[in-house]
């Protein structure tokens, strides 16, 4: 599982064998069953996550209805807003599948940064990449029709369509499941 983390970091930096060894010593890898809530509305996030295996989704509960905002899969970091702002979370993070996750905390990150100072420079770069990605998703959500958003999802993350229940995909697209069924039928023609 270490290789998944090293592969992700290699997009930004070439790690030495010694640095890899230090990282291996410090990370906490845990397994979570499908349906496990990693974060609830009203909680303060004390951990951030890196998905080694599985799928997690974030959602709001609005008048009892689930409003999906994001899906996270292998090789994706998750830094809850609450982790950064130190305010209670307004949304949930839930395991959609059985997951294996590397868990980070500010204390452990600080300790690792002391031992591998080159990693400190990655923070802003990784954050910029994540912010740009989120901004593009937001812009596409605003300017594209639900059908185009579905086609984007189909082109960019086709595996998600087989891993995620249709009602959650519909929620993510901001439509009802019936509307998603009609879109899928039109696309198949």
Automatic annotation (TrEMBL):
Protein name, UniProt field: Crp/Fnr family transcriptional regulator
Pfam families: cNMP_binding
Leader sequence segment: none
Species whose genome carries this gene: Flagellimonas aquimarina
Taxonomic superkingdom: Bacteria
Matches recorded under InterPro entries: cNMP-bd_dom, cNMP-bd_dom_sf, RmlC-like_jellyroll
Domain Cyclic nucleotide-binding: 30-108
